[in-house]
Write a structure and sequence with these properties.
By secondary structure, this protein is of the alpha/beta class. It is built from 16 helices and twelve strands. The protein has a four-stranded parallel sheet, with helices on both faces. The structure holds 1,3-dihydroxyacetonephosphate (13P) and iron/sulfur cluster.
Length: 312
């Protein structure tokens, strides 16, 4: 059955000159059929350079929007329009607009996990792969507003020593991990390295052996001599970690009630069946009004330029 769906997907992809971009948090079977699998930065970079006519985004809404902002003349499809993001939702555009009125002289740096409207109010976009370098690239005399993720914002603030005004937003998946319970888990597994995504809360970040974006965490597990890892990010990445290091052990970080809650339900809304259906129907498509698209494109292009300059 799965084989039949995959074969139909491959036939349609060829016919339509379509490409599937998938985030590491996608279901395992989707990671396996992706033309490009990566973190938010890699996927934005791929979207910026693809020659495909159709982009199927196996990810969440803001990611597909970013692809459309960069490709106004291509068809960009999100297989399930309900695939949102709690972090993007924690920053409503109207509230952000009011908030920015208090900081007129500031450079606005927004994490890519935000709506097109919020991007359009920003000067530079960043992802967890390049946030530190993007902030360091801003002249020291400039004041900075950072949104919408407060945990990433505080992480960068500590790392760079830059003063920043930070919007109070967060991702429900990364916030749920408990530092206390995860440290208990580490005490039971003293040989394990604790890997933490910077969207997690401060105490967990402080306890980490390594902090980084999904790609950085994956690379750490490939290169480390350690044999065991506790992973504090969405559990989709563990599929790749196991693939590259089949003899290493990966343990999911835990929440307060010791739940294994490291799953983003939005990411997991995308299925092979929905990918096939959207290739058949060329729906649902992402559409963005041109005036707001143009405003949102500028800070994304700026991020891509800086990343290229820095070899990221
Ligand atoms: P990265 O892809 O930058 O690691 O971000 C993780 C994330 O939460 C994406 O939604
Ligand atoms: Fe958004 Fe968090 Fe899901 Fe990433 S893991 S898409 S930040 S809700």
């Amino acid at each position: 059955m799965i084989e039949k769906i995959i074969s139909e997907i491959n036939i349609l992809k060829k016919e339509l000159n379509a490409i599937i971009l998938a985030h590491y948090y996608q279901r395992n079977e989707i990671q396996e059929i992706a033309d490009c699998l990566g973190d938010s930065l890699a996927l934005a970079q791929q979207a910026a350079k693809t020659n495909a006519d159709v982009i199927v985004f196996a990810g969440v809404h803001f990611m597909a929007e970013t692809a459309k902002i960069l490709n106004p003349n291509k068809i960009v499809i999100l297989p399930d329009m309900e695939a949102g993001c709690s972090l993007a939702d924690s920053c409503p555009a109207n509230d952000f607009k009011e908030f920015l009125k208090n900081y007129p002289e500031h450079i606005v740096v927004s994490y890519i996990n935000c709506s097109t409207q919020v991007k359009a109010m920003s000067d530079i976009i960043c992802t967890s792969s390049n946030a530190v370098q993007i902030i360091e690239d801003i002249p020291a005399d400039k004041r900075i507003v950072f949104g919408p993720d407060k945990n990433l914002g505080n992480y960068i603030k500590n790392k760079t020593g830059r003063e920043m005004v930070i919007w109070n937003g967060a991702c429900h998946v990364h916030e749920i991990f408990s530092a206390e319970k995860t440290i208990e888990l580490k005490m039971k597994n003293p040989d394990a390295k604790l890997l933490v995504h910077p969207e997690c809360k401060g105490p967990l970040v402080v306890a980490a052996d390594f902090v980084g974006s999904t790609t950085a965490l994956l690379n750490y597990t490939k290169n480390s001599t350690a044999k065991k890892f506790i992973v504090a990010t969405e559990n989709g990445i563990i599929h790749q970690m196991k693939k590259f290091s089949p003899n290493k052990e990966f343990i999911e970080a835990v929440g307060n009630d010791s739940c294994n809650c490291s799953e983003c339900e939005y990411m997991k809304l995308i299925t092979l069946e929905k990918i096939l259906a959207c290739l058949k129907n060329l729906q649902p498509q992402i559409n963005i009004e041109e005036d707001i698209r143009l405003k949102a494109e500028k800070p994304i292009r700026k991020m891509l330029e800086i990343s290229e300059k820095l070899g990221l």
